[in-house]
Amino acid sequence: MNQIETAPELTEIVETGGQTTGAQWLSRYSSSLLGVFGTPQRVLVRGAGCLVWDADGKEYLDLLGGIAVNALGHAHPFVTSVISSQLATLGHVSNFFTSPTQIALAEKLLDISKAPAGSKVFFANSGTEAVEAAFKLARRNVGSAATPRTKIIALEGAFHGRTMGALALTAKEAYRAPFAPLPAGVVHIPFGDVDALRAAVDESTAAVFLEPIQGEAGVRPLPAGYLKAAREATSAAGALLILDEVQTGIGRTGKWLASGDAGIVPDAVTLAKGLGGGFPIGALITFGPETSSLLSAGQHGTTFGGNPVATAAALATLHVLENQQVLTHVREVGEHLRSGLAAIDGVTEVRGEGLLIGFDLDADVAAAVVTAGLDAGFIVNSPGPHTIRLAPPLILTTDQADRFLAALPALLQTAKDAQ
Ligand SMILES: *Cc1c(COP(=O)(O)O)cnc(C)c1O
User: Fold this and answer.
1) What is the pLDDT of residues 240-277, one digit of tens each?
2) How far is 378 from 64, CA to CA, in rounded Å?
3) For the chain, does the N or the C end have fewer beta carbons within 10 angstroms?
4) DSSP string spanning 298-356?
5) Region of residue 230 (left: phi > 0; alpha: psi -120 to 50; beta: else)
6) Which protein residue's CA is at the shortest distance from atom 6 of ligand 1?
7) For residues 90 and 98, is the Cβ–Cβ distance under 8 A?
8) CATH class, 80-323 region
């Protein structure tokens, strides 16, 4: 029972006889998977670097990277080998125990986030769980009996996740309304408006949650100076400044943190998407000893969070990002893509930093561009009716970027013809 003597190939377990086509898989999908994602666009079976292949053998240039997750592309050999060897050594231990990779990754995150002495890390398994931990941290900034801190501030357009606490911070009414009542006390203020922020932050404020660049809202960067103003207002009121860098962190913008050059020290940062190089992991970093002691033993927890395999995957990812000068590459290719996009007829605005890029079109054809892209072998995403988002692997080459730039005018034309 301990050893499988004649191990079948995984394909023998998942295929029901013969090779299954994409259409057949999607029919099995719709009879077995909950419909929350609608119909998936393709059934993907294999990846290598920035390329993926579907069940029918078609190749795609992946310019979405699993939504900013596959930082080193697909099937990166070093990440793959580190995950395999960690799993073959020690896969899971529970949080009654710890393991060297967990400790080393916490130290590494404190280092790259330039966290001051006394800063700490909590590991989760996803973005929403990292935000959930931050929400509980905020609740522990209780204030006084006379002035309890009951208010939490987030921005219009914010996306912080789908579990109930994170959903309370998420702004989109269509996501929120079906699940009322959500945890109380969250107010959403206008995006990027420093005066609105100053007016909202007061002695009853426990925390302000901000994304340095709103990814799901179409790659909307906060205006210059906003983070600094937020730091001043929150410090003056005793509120926490919590930055959600689940999408923008870990080299996505060509910096370890998108907020890294804002000249501020936040009270907490959430990370997830790119951190594990495709393996699920989330993290909350609490800055300084005071914030780091708000959650005490027993007040939060997770079974899988910080397990040896996930933390090894993240260590491997960070190692490659650091030792192969990937962040410099991200800035260069990102700049190249943005200037190329800005020169294309029908592109009206280009936003973002590094390889988190949003661009607007002169017509509401973004969904049709996604479809035309798939047909032509490109994976992109449309967070809004006239907006396209790119969040490719950080190892995207200039040649691959040029391939997309060369194809885009025809994709726009195809999308407009389909209207
Ligand atoms: C994706 C995202 C989340 C949620 O992460 P999940 O892993 O999908 O739960 C939270 N915050 C931001 C900014 C995100 O982009």
Assistant:
1) 999 999 999 999 999 999 999 999 999 999 999 999 99
2) 9
3) N
4) TS---SSTT-HHHHHHHHHHHHHHHHTTHHHHHHHHHHHHHHHHHTSTTEEEEEEETTE
5) alpha
6) 127
7) no
8) alpha beta
Strand partners, 143: 148
Considering the entire predicted model, what is its pTM?
A: 0.97
Q: How far is CA 111 from CA 104, 220, 242, in A?
A: 11, 28, 18
The pLDDT tens digits for 37-55 are: 999 999 999 999 999 999 9
- Tens digits of residue pLDDT in 149-198: 999 999 999 999 999 999 999 999 999 999 999 999 999 999 999 999 99
**378 classed as catalytic:** no
β 268-271/240-244 pair status: parallel
Q: Please tell me if the CB atom of residue 244 comes closer than 6 angstroms to any atom of ligand 1.
A: yes
Q: Where in 16-170 does DSSP place strands (E)?
A: 44-48, 51-54, 59-62, 120-124, 151-155
Choosing from 54, 62, 244, 267, which is the catalytic residue? 244
- At residue 276, what is the residue type? G
CA distance 209 to 335: 28
β-bridge pairing 347-353 and 387-390: unpaired
CA distance 135 to 117: 23
pLDDT (tens digit per residue) in 230-250: 999 999 999 999 999 999 999
Q: How far is the CA of 207 from the centre of ligand 1 (A)?
A: 18
Q: Domain locations in the chain?
A: 42-75+325-418, 80-323
Give the position, in ligand 1's atom list, of the atom nearest the Cα of 215: 15
* The two structure tokens encoding residue 69: 């997750």
- State the Cα–Cα distance between residues 73 and 2, nearest whole angstrom: 34
Distance 245 CA to ligand 1 centre (A): 9
Tell me the pLDDT tens digit for each residue of 112-149. 999 999 999 999 999 999 999 999 999 999 999 999 99
Q: Thinking of the domain 42-75+325-418, which architecture would CATH place it in?
A: Alpha-Beta Complex (3.90)
Q: pLDDT over 90 for what percent of the chain?
A: 95
Phi, psi of 104 (to 5 degrees): -65, -40
Q: Is 160 in the pocket of ligand 1 (CB under 6 A)?
A: yes
Tokens 């592109």, located at residue: 347
274 within ligand 1 shell (Cβ under 6 A): no
Does residue 16 carry a pLDDT above 80? no
Reply yes or no on whether 123 is catalytic: no
The Cα 365–Cα 410 span in angstroms is 13
- Is residue 97 part of the annotated active site? The answer reads no
